[in-house]
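Ops channel
N.P.: pipeline sanity check, posting one input/output pair.
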């Protein structure tokens, strides 16, 4: 039966999977598995820093530290404090003493490891007052040059784009939540390899720090785009907080007119009892979403009405005949973090997270029979890809033990694991011949069994003592990423077992492993001049790659099958790093950074041939690692309550791994399927300028101005393997000299916050993104159509009110002027947000 109602969607939810959300997981068992599994496999983890130790540093003989005449804030704050002065939240410890605003101080990881990157930070208080925070990724909304591809509230495909890498580059940034890497380096896309933001409750965030570029030897080549550090607020006394947020978005596009409502409940609680501190957080989201995709056809089906005549981004007919994904999502997540003081100077931490998603999509057709007026699918099988039931349960574990002696030596040991306990999507194979329903048979797409582990052992050696002229840091790293991605045939698409008939439509599996050692020396040559040199040596291997692919007839019967055992790949590389920082006086800093980095192909880029949400992806098992050379020059002026920074940057990348998605038309059925292909591009170059500023008390007390402007000139320098055809002219195209896909030329943000007193904060902020292409030959010439990548200008409002010591309320509007734009998907229109928070 053809239905577009939400109630019908609820009735069609799969009974077989209804109880999955309550599946129990033993913390002890998970921890044992983490420590016992993958013997010999190391991994990568966060450099987030512990709170200061509870006793004075041990007495050691060391020369008097060099005291620069104009000492930087980072150095001023590096003295140990006794236990009685221990700061409550770990993220705020030993920071903020030199500025009127804590977020202007260097991140804890930068101070601990003397990292050379420039940073930008926001605290939980600033986020509360200025941002319509519905999901944790909203916290970076106004950071310079950053953009999160968030299509709806609770989007589990929200990728972080940076100044020079676009919104399909999930593995070109590193995102950490305390000791847990939430970047899913299993792939490099904006679907199933997107960061696992959902593990974080918004109310557990204490501070967010962003570090530019691949300039620190401590981070792998995935830091090409930068490193985002999210720190939880570990308590020193009892606290609890609960927040309810409701957002309402009216929608009217093509043939869909509705109002979509999302409700979200977030809570966190914690305490310190002697040596043990704990933080528990949870989040529940119930989200109805606007159409995320549309079903298109090269021609309007005969005998129907209701289609919307349209072109695709390349100017080819792509008539919109209905929605694709029109989903209702229910997500639950929880996280517990424990911290124990093993000694006065050594602290151990453990965190466990679980995330569950139950999502149902029920497409809407715009077509009606010209003869009867009844809704019809008109034989277009593309509607079946938007009809699904999807159930996911993922768990994470992280352990760490760290010292903070502020003496000659300190160490960090950490390990983390992420596991897909359940990840099953059920689809009908096609629509019925009558055009008014779905086929009984279908597909079962599974990713449960996919997992990864990371581990790091890091140390700090201060040969001349704390604050001495040399500080040497070093470490070892290892990781393992395992992909399991079978697609089974099923006889009854929404009631058969998890493996259906046992017949495989496709299979993608494989594994990558990386090992690394690194070394860095931060050398203060003069009181106001610091040279940082480092290097990272890495070995990488891809193995066990295996693919099955089949051809089928229109009813789903397999007509041919091919199985391929892929060849092993390996690479060994060294990445040098260098930084020179000069303080002309206490208010100015000039820093030049250089870094080479290798970004290795992910296991999904190599082996996953899959259709997710109607988008087909074709893997490439012969990819080369990317080799990236990045340099930047930063000039910064500081005040106690503000900062302005000018950055000139240039990147050159050889063998850049770039994917592009285009609509491919079936010549017989005229059905159009978005298809993503992945390839190495011989050489690209990106260069530009970024200007950012942030200042409190401008003209009047309580008035804060913040903003940034970024310009990027991106060019493809060489691609000998290119053989493209313009779909309009059928003539060969070239890519040399064309813009790099998914990199906008301009990106700008500007905001004003006025705080007349401690009770009120009023914010108006605007975001702009300029022209970007999504094809290597830049043939996507049509804008504001499904599949295009548009420029946009969006204005947001927020009013924050502290009604009492315990109660706070928010009212906001995102996309005030209801800008309608596409970044392949249609993005949210005007959205009204109301929130209330109670702090115990």
């Amino acid at each position: 039966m053809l239905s577009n109602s939400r109630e019908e969607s609820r009735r069609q939810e799969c009974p077989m999977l209804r109880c999955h959300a309550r599946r129990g997981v033993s913390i002890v068992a998970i921890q044992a598995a983490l420590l016992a599994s993958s013997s010999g496999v190391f991994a990568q983890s966060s450099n987030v820093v512990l709170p200061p130790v509870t006793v004075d540093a041990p007495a050691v003989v060391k020369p008097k530290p060099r005291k620069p005449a104009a000492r930087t804030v980072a150095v001023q704050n590096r003295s140990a404090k006794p236990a009685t002065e221990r700061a409550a939240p770990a993220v705020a410890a030993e920071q903020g003493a030199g500025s009127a605003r804590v977020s202007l101080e260097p991140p804890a990881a930068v101070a601990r490891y003397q990292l050379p990157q420039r940073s930008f930070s926001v605290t939980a208080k600033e986020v509360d007052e200025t941002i319509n925070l519905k999901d944790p990724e909203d916290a970076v909304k106004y950071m310079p040059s950053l953009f999160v591809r968030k299509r709806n509230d609770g989007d589990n495909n929200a990728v972080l784009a940076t100044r020079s890498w676009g919104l399909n580059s999930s593995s070109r940034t590193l995102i950490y939540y305390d000791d847990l890497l939430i970047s899913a380096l299993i792939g490099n896309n904006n679907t199933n390899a997107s960061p696992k933001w959902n593990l974080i409750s918004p109310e557990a965030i204490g501070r967010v720090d962003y570090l530019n570029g691949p300039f620190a030897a401590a981070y792998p080549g995935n830091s090409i785009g930068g490193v985002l550090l999210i720190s939880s607020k570990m308590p020193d006394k009892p606290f609890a907080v609960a927040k309810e947020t409701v957002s309402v978005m009216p929608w009217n596009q093509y043939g869909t007119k509705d109002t979509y409502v999302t409700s979200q409940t977030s809570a966190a609680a914690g305490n310190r009892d002697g040596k043990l501190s704990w933080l528990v957080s949870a989040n529940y989201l119930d989200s109805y979403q606007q159409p995320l995709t549309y079903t298109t056809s090269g021609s309007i089906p005969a005998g129907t009405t209701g289609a919307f005549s349209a072109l695709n981004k390349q100017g080819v007919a792509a008539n919109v005949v209905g929605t694709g994904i029109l989903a209702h999502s229910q997500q639950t997540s929880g996280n517990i973090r424990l911290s124990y003081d093993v000694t006065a100077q050594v602290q151990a931490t453990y965190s466990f997270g679980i995330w569950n998603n139950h999502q149902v999509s029920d497409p809407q057709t715009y077509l009606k029979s010209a003869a009867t007026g009844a809704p019809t699918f008109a034989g277009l099988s593309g509607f079946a890809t938007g009809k699904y039931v999807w159930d996911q349960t993922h768990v994470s574990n992280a352990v760490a033990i760290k010292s903070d002696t502020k003496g000659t030596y300190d160490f960090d040991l950490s390990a983390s694991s992420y596991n897909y306990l359940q990840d099953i999507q059920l689809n009908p194979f096609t629509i019925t011949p009558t055009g008014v329903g779905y086929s009984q048979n279908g597909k079962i797409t599974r990713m449960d069994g996919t997992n990864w582990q990371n581990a790091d052992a890091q140390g700090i050696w201060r040969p001349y003592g704390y604050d001495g002229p040399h500080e040497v840091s070093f470490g070892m790293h290892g990781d393992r990423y395992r992909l399991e991605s079978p697609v089974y045939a099923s006889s009854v698409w929404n009631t058969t077992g998890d493996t259906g008939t046992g017949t495989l439509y496709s299979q993608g599996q494989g594994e990558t492993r990386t090992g690394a050692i690194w070394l860095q020396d931060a050398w203060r040559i003069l009181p106001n001049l610091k040279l940082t040199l480092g290097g990272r040596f890495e070995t990488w291997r891809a193995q066990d790659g295996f693919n099955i692919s089949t051809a089928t007839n229109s009813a789903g019967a397999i007509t041919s099958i091919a199985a391929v055992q892929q060849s092993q790949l390996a690479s060994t590389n060294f990445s040098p790093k260098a930084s020179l920082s000069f303080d002309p006086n206490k208010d100015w800093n000039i820093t030049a950074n250089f870094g080479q980095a290798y970004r290795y192909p992910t296991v999904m880029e190599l082996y996953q041939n899959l259709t997710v949400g109607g988008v087909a992806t074709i893997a490439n098992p012969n990819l080369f690692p990317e080799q990236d050379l990045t340099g930047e020059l930063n000039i910064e002026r500081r005040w106690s309550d503000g900062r302005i920074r000018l950055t000139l940057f240039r990147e050159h990348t050889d063998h850049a791994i770039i994917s592009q998605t285009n609509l491919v038309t079936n010549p017989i059925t005229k059905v159009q399927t978005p298809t993503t292909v992945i390839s190495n591009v011989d050489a690209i170059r990106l260069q530009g300028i970024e200007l950012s500023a942030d200042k409190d008390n401008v003209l009047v007390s309580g008035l804060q101005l913040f903003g940034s402007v970024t310009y990027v000139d991106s060019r493809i320098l060489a691609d000998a393997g290119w053989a493209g055809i313009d779909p309009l002219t059928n003539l060969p195209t070239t890519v040399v000299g064309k813009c790099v896909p998914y990199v906008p030329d301009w990106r700008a943000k500007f905001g004003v916050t006025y705080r007349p007193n401690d009770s009120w904060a009023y914010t108006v902020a605007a975001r702009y993104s300029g022209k970007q292409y999504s094809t290597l030959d830049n043939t996507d010439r049509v804008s504001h159509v499904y599949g295009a990548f548009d420029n946009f200008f969006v204005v947001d409002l927020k009013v924050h009110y502290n009604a009492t010591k315990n109660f706070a309320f928010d009212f906001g509007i995102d996309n005030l002027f209801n800008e309608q734009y596409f970044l392949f998907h249609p993005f949210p229109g005007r959205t009204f947000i109301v929130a209330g928070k109670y702090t115990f």
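N.P.: looks fine end to end. Residues 1-98 have pLDDT under 50 and may be disordered.
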